[in-house]
Amino acid sequence: MAKQRFRNIKKGNIKPIKSKKKKSSKEINIPFATNFEKTKSAITDSFMLLMPIMYIVFYLVMDGREGFGEHKLEGWIYILVPFIIVQSAFMFKGNGQTPGYKNYNLKVIDIHSFKKPSLFSIVFRNFAMILSIATIFGWLIMFFRKDKRGLHDLLSNTAVVRISKEI
């Protein structure tokens, strides 16, 4: 093919060569959950899963608010480790759903296989989620990405998706 000159293309004598991009046959439209849906489910999970654990730690383990105030780091470890275990158990046994996710028809999937993630991925995702929220940066990532995945989702190769309602 002869070399195309810009002057000839500009005059309209020669049409520019357009590259043809092939669409992959495996391109799938994934219904990622919105940040608003994930926030609502997180609030639901915090009241259903986190609050009972906090109550037990505050009043039964630490002997009141003053005891928790004296040993804050120890108290937060007593709160967050059981929370991660309970949340991971719900996700693993409940087909990738916690009570909040189930309420809003959301589900955690492995981004490569589109199935429920392994137990290790779920536990790693939940630990990374706590660190992501604590550093704020990892949590803010989901507001700037099209797929709405946070740092914890990127590290664990997971995503939160909407599922259809079953009647």
Could you explain the architecture of this structure?
By secondary structure, this protein is mainly α. It has one domain (35-162). The protein has eight helices and two strands; from the N terminus they run H-H-H-H-H-E-H-H-H-E. It has helices spanning 6-11, 35-61, 65-70, 72-93, 99-103, 119-135, 137-140, 151-156, and strands spanning 106-110, 158-162. It has a two-stranded antiparallel ribbon. Helix 2 crosses helix 4 and helix 4 packs across helix 6.
- Overall body shape: elongated
Low-confidence stretches: none
Number of domains: 1
Extended strand count: 2
Provide the structure class.
mainly alpha
Please state how the strands of the largest beta sheet are arranged side by side: 1-2
The chain-level mean pLDDT equals 84
**Share in β-strands:** 5-15%
| Biggest beta sheet attributes | 2 strands, antiparallel
Q: What quaternary form is this?
A: single chain
Give, in order, the helices and strands. Answer: HHHHHEHHHE
- Give the proportion of residues in helices: 55-70%
Q: In DSSP terms, counting alpha (H) and pi (I) runs of 4 or more, how many helices?
A: 8
Distance between the termini: 60 Å
User: Rounded to an integer, what's the Rg over CA atoms?
Assistant: 24 Å
